[in-house]
Amino acid sequence: MDALCLSTMTLRQVALELLQIQDPDSKAARTIATEVATSPCGGQAVLVEPPLLPGRPDRPMLVAPRQQAQRAVGTREGRTALLHALAHIEHNAINLALDACWRFAGMPEAYYRDWFSVAREEAQHFGLLRDHLATLDARYGDLPAHDGLWDMVRKTRGDVLARMALVPRTLEARGLDASPAVRQRLASVGDQAGARIVDILLRDEIGHVAIGNHWFRHLCTERGLEPLACYAALSERYGAPPMFGPFNLPARKAAGFTDAELSYLVQTRQSPPAGKPNKTRPDGSSPHHPARR
User: Fold this and answer.
1) Model's pTM, two decimal places?
2) What is the rounded distance in angstroms from the CA atom of residue 284 to the CA atom of residue 248?
3) Torsions phi, psi of 145, nearest 5?
4) Is 52 left (phi over 0), alpha (psi -120 to 50) or beta?
5) Cis geometry, peptide bond prior to residue 246 (ω within 30 degrees of 0)
6) Spatial CB neighbours of 109, under 8 Å, sequence gap ≥ 6
7) How far apart are the C-alpha atoms of 130 and 73, rounded to whole Å?
8) Which one-letter DSSP state was computed for residue 159?
C-alpha cells in the first residue's frame, strides 16, 4: 500500500487522512509506509475535524467491557481472545497516536514527528498480533471488543495538556503494568511466539509513555504548572479512572515517571476499594480500571 504524498500534504494532514481509513490492514500498512524524517509538519494550521473519527471497520462489534466473555487462556478459544484483545489495543493505539499528531496546532515540530513515529510502531505491533492470530485460524474482528480509551480521547480533544496527562501517561501506562502478567499467561501455555510479541510491545510502549511524559512536562513548564499537582487536578476534572496495583515500577521509571510520581501512585493507588477484588481481564483491564486502550 502506497504512503500518502508528503510532497503535497503536511504531516498533520497525512495523519488525519490515515485516521479516517476504515480498514485496519490498510491503515497499518499506509502508516508504516509514510516516512516522516524531513516532511513538513504544518504545526500552525488549524485543521477542520471531519465527522466520524476515527475510521473503523464494521467489526469488531464494540461492547461494554463487562459484556466481554472471559475465557481460560489454556484453551484455544481463551488464547485467541487474549491475542484478539491485544490486537484491538494496538489498532486503537494507531488511532490514538494519529489523533495526537493531527489535532493540536501550535506545538513544536518534534511533537508531531514523535506521535507519527509512535503511530508507525503501533501499526507494526498490530501486524505482529494480526499475523499471530492467523496461526490460530482467527482474524481481527472475529470477537467483540470495547472502546474505553476513545472516551478519554474525546474528552481531552480540546486541550493537549489534558491529552498528554490522561491518555499516554495514564491509560496507556496501564499497559506497562499489565504486560508481565500477560506475557506469563502466554508463556505458561507454551505460546513463546506470543510472549516474544508482548516483549516487543512492552519495550516500545516504554518509549511511547516516555514521549507522553516529555510533552506533558514541556507543557507544564510552558504554562507555569507543577506537574504532580497539575496531573491530580486534571485527573479529577476529566474523570480519569482509578488505578490500582500491582504497578510495573521499573518500566514506569524507564518511561520517565519521577520518584515523586511513583511514590504518589503507590501510596494512594495500591489497593482497590474494600470488597472489590482487583480481578484482571485478559487485556490487562479490571472491573475498576480499563485497559490502556
Assistant:
1) 0.89
2) 12
3) -145, 170
4) left
5) yes
6) 41, 43
7) 18
8) -
On whether the CB atoms of residues 149 and 167 are closer than 8 A, the answer is yes
Fold of 11-269: Ferritin (1.20.1260)
109-134 and 76-103 are packed helices; what angle lies between their axes, rounded to 10 degrees? 160
Residue 1 is placed in which grid cell? 500500500
Q: Which residues pair with 62 in a beta bridge?
A: 145
C-alpha distances in angstroms, 131 versus 76, 124, 137? Answer: 16, 11, 10
- Count the Cβ atoms, other than its own, within 10 Å of residue 69: 11
161 contacts 216 by C-beta, under 8 angstroms: yes
Asked if 202 and 179 count as a contact pair (C-beta separation under 8 A), the reply is yes
3-state DSSP assignment of residue 145: strand
Q: What whole-number distance in Å separates Cα of residue 74 and Cα of residue 255?
A: 32
Q: Are 116 and 109 in contact (CB under 8 A)?
A: no
C-alpha cell at 213: 511524559
d(CA 272, CA 43): 42
pLDDT in tens, the chain (293 residues): 455 555 679 999 999 999 999 999 999 999 999 987 667 899 999 999 999 999 999 999 887 766 566 777 889 999 999 999 999 999 999 999 999 999 999 999 999 999 999 999 999 999 999 999 999 999 999 999 887 778 899 999 999 999 999 999 999 999 999 999 999 999 999 999 999 999 999 999 999 999 999 999 999 999 999 999 999 999 999 999 888 889 999 999 999 999 999 998 888 765 554 444 444 444 344 433 334 44
Helix 11-19 × helix 76-103 angle, to 10°:
140
